[in-house]
Specification:
By secondary structure, the chain is an all-alpha fold. It has one domain. It is built from 4 helices and no strands. The chain starts with 10 loop residues before the first helix and ends with a helix.
């Protein structure tokens, strides 16, 4: 079977790569929404491809429910960091939601 991503990569790096890919795709969508169509679409496509490849290998090692929670938590941190860097504020309600995602990860992995 053809493998595009090495199966020997540690799971934590695969979670980060998957979340990073989704975060890059989100940044591409944000750029597209601000009129940078071609570069935004290209960035989103590359992000989704990276996320797909990393998650494909990750799902061979772990259960879907655990993978999903870990990726969502990591992606949440990355996207919130990006939002803060571009000057988009974070309301108390949004911060509470992000905290719940992180608490969910902690509960699910213990």
């Amino acid at each position: 079977m053809l493998t595009l991503v090495s199966p020997n990569i540690p799971a934590a790096l695969l979670v980060i790569a998957t979340a990073g890919g989704y975060a890059v795709a989100t940044i591409g969508m944000k750029l597209t929404s601000h009129g940078l169509g071609h570069s935004g679409i290209a960035l989103a496509s590359l992000g989704f491809l990276a996320a797909f490849l990393a998650e494909m290998v990750l799902l061979r090692r772990a259960e879907l429910s655990l993978v999903y929670i870990a990726v969502i938590a990591a992606e949440t941190l990355l996207v919130l960091t990006y939002a803060l860097l571009i000057g988009e504020g974070l309301s108390l309600r949004q911060a509470g939601g992000a905290a719940l995602v992180l608490v969910g990860l902690a509960v699910a992995t213990t």
